[in-house]
Design a protein that fits this description.
- It is a single chain.
- With 549 residues, this protein is an alpha+beta fold.
- The protein is built from 14 helices and 20 strands.
- β6 and β7 form a beta hairpin.
- The N and C termini lie far apart (73 Å).
Length: 549
């Protein structure tokens, strides 16, 4: 049957609804708070060739854009002729899946009758996979936990019990991990079931016409957006805190007639701690940043992703090679949008925001080593918090907002219900947004302690302690992050393993975003509105905005 463009567009819209339902199935069935409360997932539908046709809106670029390539790898690894209805394949290999061991990626062939017509896939974060746990302290991938190469997790509807038992035996949270794996399975099944129902409703037996329409339409739209850009090569260097010493990330962005090329040549080499980034993850966030500016209204799929290419020398910290430690790959991977925007702002100065907090300010917490002997609560938990985004060319930055990760902040009540942690304060951090014609978004002030007489182990890996978010076009920098232990006012570095003793309070202040444009150009009424709302102090209004009462 020849499909009209109108009919194909209706099916495309329906496919977007199907994949969103697929993602919600994962979130609602998950056990771990970082999945069910924070949305640290991806879900997608793929054609027979492994090309991504649609992705759930809920999800992180690190999961979504790595998944787009991982399905091609898994599809090539397992012969389609050997696939049966009810089969599901999985891996957590960082260089195939999502950049570190804690992310499980599943792929399920979708059958229409007895024929494979496409695939559903999903990714989510499992809170603990053994090893040293979520933290930057590992010296190689073997320190960081359990690596599962591509394998069949479900065979014709029967879960591989051995794989499940191995995962549970290598985790401090075996029940949560088991529940999260079943949630991933349910996600694949929900997508497969709804896709088949959609095909039956529209009277089609394969996805070839719809797939070609989606990918070609998206690719043409993206190429049209690229055609309107200035052509050339722009370079930028972003200095980040690193682990033991500061690190430079280099990028050269080339805009050609039919593609964009981003090259990380010149970037510092890998380090001995787990902040190294596989190229698949660095690519995912870099391309996401570009797509936020270029063809932003075009859905994310294989067609719209095709014109973007990313490369970097093997062994640089944004192209780590196995067995480099990569547990906290998001720390620098989520800084790549600011690196990319440093290039793009030279070509499109009125379209690119100022720098923001960027990397998630996550707090992986765990029981202290002696908890087993003392009978204390044993747990592994990863909390997620966010800083402010950079001011935009026409709007202020967003406060306490996850960009680029999209991961929602951890909920106080949920956290206190599942771990021996007590929150004392959680509020916006006044004066943390950089001054400018448009103000940077504010960070957060968070205070927490152990709720019982036991120590907590904290595994820090955050950025913007030494190098705050820079303003753009004359805007001022945002406030740097700050981590303090009270009552002795002990200042903590951004990375490393820390013991929070019973009775101590951890104060966690996330960074603010940079300002955009000269501060003196901000309208007086906007400054005074910020002062009245408690976002900006009177002292800051008088000094950084150069206002006089």
């Amino acid at each position: 049957m020849i499909q009209s463009d109108t009919r194909l567009q209706v099916m495309w819209n329906r496919l977007l609804a199907v994949v969103e339902e697929q993602g919600q199935a994962l979130i609602r069935a998950a056990f771990s708070p970082i999945v069910r409360e924070c949305g640290d997932i991806s879900a997608g539908i793929f054609d027979m060739q492994g090309r991504m046709l649609a992705q759930a809106v809920t999800g992180t670029p690190g999961h979504i854009n790595t998944m787009a390539e991982a399905v091609k790898t898994l599809r090539a690894r397992f012969a389609q002729t050997d696939m049966k209805p009810g089969d599901i394949y999985m891996t957590n290999d960082p260089w195939i899946a999502s950049g570190h061991l804690n992310d499980f990626l599943l792929m399920m062939p979708v059958f229409f009758g007895d024929t494979v017509i496409g695939y559903t896939a999903c990714t989510s974060h499992l809170v603990d996979l053994g090893g040293l746990g979520m933290g930057p302290e590992g010296s190689d991938i073997y320190d960081e936990g359990l690596l599962i190469p591509p394998c069949k997790l479900v065979s014709q509807g029967e879960v591989n019990a051995l794989v499940l038992e191995i995962v549970k035996a290598n985790s401090r949270e075996p029940i949560a991990n088991e529940g999260d794996i079943y949630a991933l399975i349910a996600c694949c099944e929900a997508g497969s079931r709804r896709l088949v129902q959609m095909m039956q409703e529209f009277g089609i037996t394969d996805l070839s016409a719809l797939s070609d329409y989606i990918i070609e339409t998206s690719r043409r739209g993206t190429l049209d957006a690229i055609a309107g850009l200035p052509k050339g090569t722009w370079q930028h260097v972003l200095k980040v805190d690193g682990y033991d010493e500061e690190i430079e990330l280099h990028a050269a962005l080339t805009i050609a007639d039919d593609h964009l090329l981003l090259d990380f040549d010149g970037t510092a080499a890998c380090v001995g701690k787990g902040i190294n980034v596989p190229l698949n993850y660095a690519t995912a966030y870099s391309v996401f940043a570009l797509r936020c500016i270029i063809g932003a209204d075009i859905p994310n799929n294989a067609g719209s992703l095709d014109p973007f290419r990313v490369t970097g020398p093997e062994g640089c910290i944004l192209n780590a090679q196995p067995p480099a430690p990569v547990a906290m790959r998001h720390t620098l991977g989520q800084m790549t949008p600011d690196l990319v925007y440093g290039c793009l702002s030279q070509a499109l100065p009125e379209k690119v925001p100022a720098e923001g907090a960027s990397c998630m300010y996550d707090l992986p917490l765990r029981h202290a080593p002696e908890a087993i002997d003392r009978g204390d609560d044993q747990f592994a938990l990863e909390l997620v918090f966010n800083g402010g985004t950079g001011a935009r060319p026409r709007l202020d930055g967003l406060s306490a907002t996850a960009f680029p990760s999209g991961v929602w902040g951890s909920q106080v009540e949920t956290t206190e219900a599942v771990a021996p942690v007590l929150f004392h304060r959680r509020e916006l951090r006044p004066d943390s947004g950089g001054a400018g014609r448009l103000r940077g978004g504010l960070g957060q002030h968070i205070e927490l302690s152990a709720s019982k007489d036991q120590d907590l182990m904290l595994f820090l890996s955050v950025e913007r302690i030494k190098n705050p978010a820079n303003g753009r076009e004359g805007g001022l920098d945002g406030a740097p992050g700050r981590i303090t232990v009270m009552p002795e006012n002990r200042q903590l570095p951004g990375k490393g393993e820390v013991r929070i003793k019973a009775g101590e309070t951890l104060i966690f202040e996330t960074p603010g975003g940079g300002g955009f444009g000269l501060p003196e150009e901000r309208p007086e009424e906007a400054v005074q509105s910020d002062v009245r709302a408690g976002l900006v102090s009177e002292a800051m209004a008088q000094t950084q905005y150069r206002r006089q009462t």
